[in-house]
Amino acid sequence: MKLTVFKNEKDIDQAAADSVIEVIKSNPEATIGLATGQTPVGLYQKLVQAHQNGKVSFKQVTTYNIDEYAGLAKDHPQSFYDFMKTHLFSKVDVPEENIHIPDGASSDLEAEAERYEAELEKAGQLDVQILSIGLNGHIGFNEPGHTLHAETHVVTLTEDTREVNSQAFSSLEDVPKKAITMGIGSMMKAKKIVFIAKGEAKASILKQAFKGPIDPLVPGSLLQLHPNLEVYLDESAAEYLK
Ligand SMILES: N[C@@H]1[C@@H](O)[C@H](O)[C@@H](COP(=O)(O)O)O[C@@H]1O
């Protein structure tokens, strides 16, 4: 694991974006796994800036989002598709047909999870996977539990996660109870993982994830097994890792 600690949030975003841009430069047809949440917003801004400055094109890039809420159609303002459209897709030249995200509005979620996993298998090893971590240690929506799934699956969100994520919704009741998420195995197949986390609220879970034992109760700890993991943190998030 290559850990880099930055003083300034903008520097984390730039360094993480540079790592993604490097992948696209060496392979314009790169496949990229994408994550949502507040953490990668700055990284997406830096990718947009690089695109606007003519430094990188997404024309031949293919993207695979790691998760989506169940019951929310793509055009729902709280869907992860809409989030990605706002922060990245509408601002770069990635073709719509190259964008992949589980369909949360599917009437058969289990079948949709299987379909998405088949797409991932067809794509093979993703060139880079962008990831962050939830306060309870979840990666994507792989929630803490005694067992973890390797492949894309339907998950029941924990009440903790629904509460944390309710900030984006008008009320807790509006937060979906289920989601479709790539499994830890699907994410771990990527050639490189660009992991970012910011802020003191994440410090304790990051210590458990990166210094503790590999434990399904801390899904992020599985990342320790990845051979090419880049971790970008600010000083407060890295408090117990220095
Ligand atoms: N499914 C996403 C995760 O992919 C993300 O890493 C996490 C942290 O979000 P934030 O970056 O806002 O702390 O929350 C969400 O639930």
UniProtKB/TrEMBL annotation:
GO CC list: cytoplasm
Pathways per UniProt: Amino-sugar metabolism; N-acetylneuraminate degradation; D-fructose 6-phosphate from N-acetylneuraminate: step 5/5
Keyword Hydrolase: yes
Catalysed reaction, written as an equation: alpha-D-glucosamine 6-phosphate + H2O = beta-D-fructose 6-phosphate + NH4(+)
Active site: residue positions: D67, N136, H138, E143
Glucosamine/galactosamine-6-phosphate isomerase domain residues: 15-224
PANTHER family hit by this protein: GLUCOSAMINE-6-PHOSPHATE ISOMERASE
Protein name: Glucosamine-6-phosphate deaminase
Species of provenance: Metabacillus sediminilitoris
Name of the gene: nagB
